[in-house]
Amino acid sequence: MASNSDLGSADFETLASTSDVELLKRAWRNEKAAPEILPYEAALIERAKGQIELVEENIEDYVENGIDPLVVSLYQMDLDRTQFLLRSYLRVRLLKIEKFMFHNLKSEEAESRLSEQEKVFAKSCADDLAKHFEESVLLKLPENYQSVLKQSLISEVDDMVPQPHLDTFVVCRSKNFVSLNLYEEGESPETVEMERGDLYFIRYKIVKGAIESGKIDLI
């Protein structure tokens, strides 16, 4: 049987991990609502994976030692919730990588937001898609129209590359007082002041920096 001190230690570990679970939930929620891929939460993800492994080991020990099944089921519920958040967070990012693979690889800012594994995945997807297009369509077209990235070779930009729409409106909540510029550089200056807890329906690119700094959460 596990001693009371062992159970107390496990309870403390679960309590200590609560903040990381909430951070993971925030990262998942922001990633789902943002039109572009957000910076990869490397440290948080590694901590979450470590906590999942620890709780899995604790649950196995509790089952073997005959701990009350109700207690075990509560720990299992917490474990299932954390695993769901982690898997869903990573899955949402993979969907965005697939959707904007060429953009993510040609934009230094976007590529810097990917983990090393995600960069490998993005490059593999882009190479496979380009090869498929070339073999099935592009090589059968006139030479000026054989680019995967441009409508024709005379195009000045990569106009065949899907990009995130940063003008998309999002719903967000302020975590602290924030003053934001409503317009881009060169336009008429106007700001919006958001108090703690305020809800706003606003263009994503206006709150982009505040989201990445943790001052604002997407809903």
UniProtKB/TrEMBL annotation:
Top-level taxon in the UniProt lineage: Eukaryota
Alphabetized InterPro entries for the sequence: GINS_A, GINS_bundle-like_dom_sf, GINS_Sld5, SLD5_C, Sld5_GINS_A
Domain annotation GINS subunit: ranges: 70-135
Record keywords: DNA replication, Nucleus
Compartments it resides in: Nucleus
Limits of the DNA replication complex GINS protein SLD5 C-terminal domain: 164-219
GO CC annotation terms, alphabetical: GINS complex
Main location class: nucleus
UniProt-listed GO biological process terms: DNA-templated DNA replication; double-strand break repair via break-induced replication
Membership in a protein family: Belongs to the GINS4/SLD5 family.
Function, in words: The GINS complex plays an essential role in the initiation of DNA replication.
Protein name in UniProt: DNA replication complex GINS protein SLD5
